[in-house]
## 1
Amino acid sequence: MKRWMGAALAAVAGGMVAVPSWTGPQAVARAAGSPMQVVGFWANDAVSGLSGLYKYPKSITWFTPFWYSVKANGHLVDRTVPSIKKEVMAKHIPVTPLVNDMTGTQAFLKSPSTLTNAARNIADMVKANHYAGVSIDFEPQHVSVAPELSHFMVELRDFLPKGSVITLSVVPHSGGAYQWSALNPEVNQYVLMSYDQHDDGSYAGPVAATPWVQNIVTRMEKTVPPSKIDLGVALYGYEWPKGSTHAVTIPYNAVTPTMHKNAKWDSADQETYATFRSTSMGPVNVWWESLQGMNQKIQLAKQDHLAGIALWHMGYANDSVYQLLLHQVGTQP
C-alpha cells in the first residue's frame, strides 16, 4: 500500500554489494525449530483489527505502532494512543514503536548534532515508556546518506538500554542506501518491505507475487543473514477501475462479499484476484492478499529459514488472520 511517505515498491534495483559480515545482536534470531517471530505493525488509521489482537495476544511477537516521527532538528513528534498502549501492555505484548522520518529527506542525518539528538531522543523515549525496543523506518532513497544512517544506528545502539531490539525497515530498491557491513552488528532484524509490487500508480496486478517476493529475499540474503530478515506481508489489496492506474486500498477485513464471490486464485503469482462490475466504479480489477496468499508467504519464510514475518498492518486484520498466525507461525506457547 502507499505508506505515509509514499514509498512504492516498484522494482528491485542492483547495487547491493555482498558483504558477508553477519556478526552483531542475535538475541531475536530464530533458532532451528523455534517459533517464527511476528512483527505486527499498526497505524492510527484503523482500529477494528485490534479486537482480534486482544483476543489472541500470543499471535504476534511485537506490537509495532506508528506513533513517532523525527523532525529535522532531531526532536520527536509523539502520536501515542494511551488507551491502546495500556491495553496492549496489559496483555503483556512487547511494544517496539515505529519511528519514521517526518522530513522525507533524512534531513536530521545530515548534521552530526541533529543525528545524535535524534538517536538520544529515541532512546530516551524507549526508556521512559519501558518499550522492548524500536522500529526504525526512515526509508532512505539515496546512497548519499548511507554512512550517516550507519552512524545513526551505532549511536542509537549505544544510547538504548541493554537488550533493546532494533528493527530496520528496508526498501529493496534502495539497495545502495544501506551499508550492510556496518548495519548488521547494530540491527537485530530487518523488515523487508516485500509488498506493493503493484499499487496506486501502477496498472492492476498482484500486491506481492510470490516469485517476485522470492527474488527480493534471495537478493537480500546475499548481504544479510536469513536469521535477521522478517518478510513483509500485506494485509490488504487494491481495487482498480479497468484500464486505470488509480487504485483504492482494500483492507483484508473489508473484503466484500462480491470480491469473495468472484475470487480466483492465480497459481503463478500465488495471489487472489477478481474482476467484476462495481456499482460505483464500473468494471474493476481487484488483487488482494487472502489467507491463502498470506500462508504462501509464511511458507516462503519458513523455507528460507527467515526470522519471521512482518504484517502491515494489524488494523486490517480479522480473527481469521490471528488464527492463521497461531496455527502456522507457532507464536502461541
## 2
Amino acid sequence: MADTYARYFQAVSTPDPAAAVEVVDEALTGGVPPAALITDVLARAQRVAGEKWMQGEWTIADEHAVTAVTKQALTVVAPPRPRTRGGPHVVVACAEGEWHSLPARMAGELLRDDDLDVAILGASIPVEQLREHLRSSLPDVLALSATMPTSLIGAARSIAAARHEDVPVVVGGNAWGSGQRRARALGAHLRLDDIREVRGRLDEIRAMQPPPLPDLPDEVSWLDDVPREVLNAAFERQCAQDAALGGMDDQQRSEHERDLRSIARHAAAAVACADPSVVSDLLDWLLSMRSARGLPTEAVLDGARHLADAIDSQAPLAAAILRGGAPRERSHESTDRDPGPGLTPAG
C-alpha cells in the first residue's frame, strides 16, 4: 500500500488525473479493497495536501487541484451503483454552511461497503430542505459532516432539524475536535471516528438518550456574520498601538481583516459549543501558518485582543473567550472529552 500511496500522491501533486486514476485502477485490479484505497490513499493524500498548504509549501490552488483529482479517482474506486434498498437507511450530509463535500462522500462510500441503504446529499444542505428530506425518507440515522469549526453553527441548526423529525444524529469531521464535548453541546447523539461503526451500533444509537438541544445566545448569529465596521474598529485600535500596521498595503489589510473575521466566527462557534479550544486551536494554527511563511506573528494575538474589545458590548461571552476566559457552562455534559467514535475518514 505504501508504494500505491507514493505513486498516487506523485500523480495528484503534478496534478495528473490520468496517472492518479491509473494508480487506483491497478490497485483495484490487484485486489486492494476499495475501502483501503479510500482511507489509506485518497484520504491520506487530502490530509497531506492540507498540511503542505499550512506549512507554506503549497498554495490554495495546489490543494484544490489535489481535491479535484481525488474526486475523479474516487469515482473509479467507488463507481455509481444502485442503492441497497431494504437495509438500514443512512443519510450522509454536510452541515449547513459546510462546503467541503469530499470527506462526506468518502464516508458514504465506506458505508456502502456495509450494504447499507445510503443516500449522500452533498455540501451545505439548507436546514429546511434537510428537514423535508428526512421527513420523507425516514432514515435510521443522519450522519452529519463538518470539517471547519465555523460550520458548527450551521451544524447546530442541522442537528435540530433532524431531532425535530426524531432522526438520530451522528457527527464527524475535524470540526468536532476529539471526544464528545462539541457534539453533545450541539445536541448530537454521538461523534464517530469511523463511520463504519454505524452498522454495528445502530440499535445503540437509536436507543440512546440525546443531550438537550442548545439555546444559542443571540451573539452567536451576530458574530457569525460580524459587521465589517466592527472589524474595522478592531483594526484601527490595533493600528493605534502598532504603527507598522498602518503601513499595510490593500492586500495585507484585506488578509488581516480576513483573519479577524475568521477569529470572530470561531469565537461564535466556541460559544455555541461551550468550548474555548475552538478559538485557541485557530490561533495556534494562524501562528504556525504565519511562522511557516516567514510572516510576523505578533499581529494575530494582538488582533484577537482588540477584537475582544470591539465586540464586548454585543458578544460578551465571545469576548471573554478571546481574552482567555471561559464560556457559559451548560447543564448537560458539554465537558465530556472521552474518546468517542466519527464520520469522515479524513478532515
